[in-house]
Structures are given as C-alpha cells and as structure tokens.
Design a protein that fits this description.
Helix content is 34%, strand content 19%. With 273 residues, it is an alpha/beta fold. The chain has one domain: Metal-dependent hydrolases (TIM Barrel). A 7-stranded parallel sheet has the order 1-2-3-4-5-6-7, with helices on one face. A two-stranded antiparallel sheet has the order 8-9. Strand 8 and strand 9 form a beta hairpin. The chain binds zinc ion. The site of zinc ion (ZN) has 5 residues, from loops.
Length: 273
C-alpha cells in the first residue's frame, strides 16, 4: 500500500499521551504504509468556559521540538514521516495562526475548526438551542469563512467533525442539505489545489452512534473537478494509524477517484489509490 496517513497526533498534542512519533511511525512501517504525517494540534483559542472552570490546557506545541523528534525518528524507522500541523482556525486568533505558519516550515498543513461560537462542540454546549441543520450548517460556514481568510494551508480537515458529538438522530452531513455551501467550498478547494480530507475517525462510531459519509458529497466534489483527496486516521494511538484505509480507499475508487494526495514541503504529490 502506498497510501499516506496524513493526519496523526503524537506526544506533542495536548491529547496525545497515548502515543508518540516513534510508536506511530513503527506502526505505519509495520503496515507497509507509504508514509505518515505527524499533524499535532495547534489551537490558540481557549473557550471561555474552560477558563471559568480553571480547566485551561495549552493546545499548541513547540514546533521546533516536534520537528527535531521527527528528524530523530526518521533516521531509525523505515517509513517516510512528514512534518505537519493541524491548525485550529478561529477568528479571534488569526494573527497567531498566521505567525506559526509563517515562522516554521512544514510539509503539510491541515486546517480544521475545533471551536466555534466560543464553545467546544466536544463538550456539547454548541448544540444547545440549535437544530441539526443550523448546527451543521454553521460549522461548514465557519470552516469556509476561516479557510478563505487563511489561504495558507493544504488540507481542509474533517468537515463533518461536528456530527460526531451531536445529539441529533441526523448522523450525516448530506450534500442535498447544504448543496450551495458544499459547491462554494469545493470550488475554492479545486481552484486552489487543496485537498479534501477523508477523516476515517469521523466514521469510527462514538458512544454507540455511527456517523455516515454521504457519497453524494464526494460525487459532487468529483463532478466539479475535485481530484485531491487526503486520507487521515486522526490517530491518537499507534494502533489507529491507517485505520480503515482499505475500506475507504476501496470506496473512493468505486466512486471514480484515482489518487490519494499528500504534500511534501507544501507541494502536492498524487499517488494511485
Ligand atoms: Zn481535528
């Protein structure tokens, strides 16, 4: 398998205590993956409620130290390791986001939204007083607004992250419900040569609830000319590296896609699926 796992967390992520660059690289090598990117969390925004609870955890990392560790592991594990970052977009932190990207050299940058409306969807409060359509639509709009502003990224991260923790029976972001928004986002990605992420963790199931990937979303992406897809496991444990890649690679092929993307020194590389 020549696939690259483009989304992995390590000990440099605030929630990466169960893994390490070395353990993940060894796991990727053992599975015969083409490579992996270490894309640690970098969120500068801290939700006010966490501050109130005194529950403030720094969710960014020391890029120099992380890259030093990647270089060390690269010398001892026979698999390509890419230097990455998952930058958490938030309008209150735009300058810090720009700065960390400008001050460092990465192979690839995933742009994601983890916090919006000043809250953390993971803790549930985001959904209060919203129906599914508003909750999901607002998330997509936020990704679009911030990624247009940022511009400096390679991969649009987990567009359906917001479904994973949602309280609604509606367990998928369907193309037909957000057709205009998807078209606008995809047109932008395609024109800019950026990748749409298939984040396999999103579909892993969470507290007994399954999240479904709507094939129509992918078919529309392709119809508009979208060919750049990034597979990411979003692993926080070495065993999760490359998780479900066989299944998703087969799905993508069945929908007419031919390539899986990754970026080296911010340059697009397409390998056959
Ligand atoms: Zn993320």
């Amino acid at each position: 398998m020549t696939l690259f796992d483009n989304h992995n967390h390590s000990q440099f992520s605030f929630d990466g205590k169960r893994t390490s660059v070395e353990a993940s690289a060894k796991s990727a090598a053992a599975q015969g993956l083409g490579g992996l990117a270490v894309t640690d969390h970098c969120d500068f925004f801290i939700p006010p409620v966490k501050k109130m609870q005194g529950n403030v955890v720094q969710e960014w990392f020391d890029v120099a130290k992380q890259q030093e560790e990647i270089t060390r592991v690269q010398a001892i594990v026979p698999v390509k390791i890419l230097k990455g970052i998952e930058i958490g977009m938030h309008e209150d932190c735009r300058e810090e986001i720009r700065k960390v990207l400008a001050d460092n050299r990465f192979d690839q940058v995933i742009a994601s939204v983890h916090y919006l409306d000043d809250v953390d969807p993971y803790q549930g409060e985001y959904y209060d007083g919203k129906d599914w359509k508003e909750a999901y639509g607002r998330y997509l709009e936020t990704i679009f607004r911030e990624m247009i502003w940022l511009g400096d990224f390679d991969i649009m991260g987990h567009y359906d992250y917001i479904v994973r923790y949602a309280p609604y029976p509606q367990n998928s972001i369907r193309y037909k419900d957000f057709a205009d928004l998807f078209d606008t986002m995809f047109t932008y990605l395609i024109q800019e040569g950026k990748a749409l992420e298939i984040n396999t963790k999103s579909y892993q199931g969470y507290r007994g609830r399954e999240v479904l990937l709507d094939n129509e979303v992918l078919l529309r992406y392709r119809e508009l000319g979208g060919e750049i897809l990034s597979l990411g496991s979003d692993s926080h444990e070495p065993e999760r590296v490359g998780a479900d890649f066989d299944r998703f690679a087969a799905l993508l092929k069945s929908l007419g896609f031919r390539w899986s993307a990754h970026y080296e020194e911010r340059r697009l590389i397409q390998l056959p699926l």
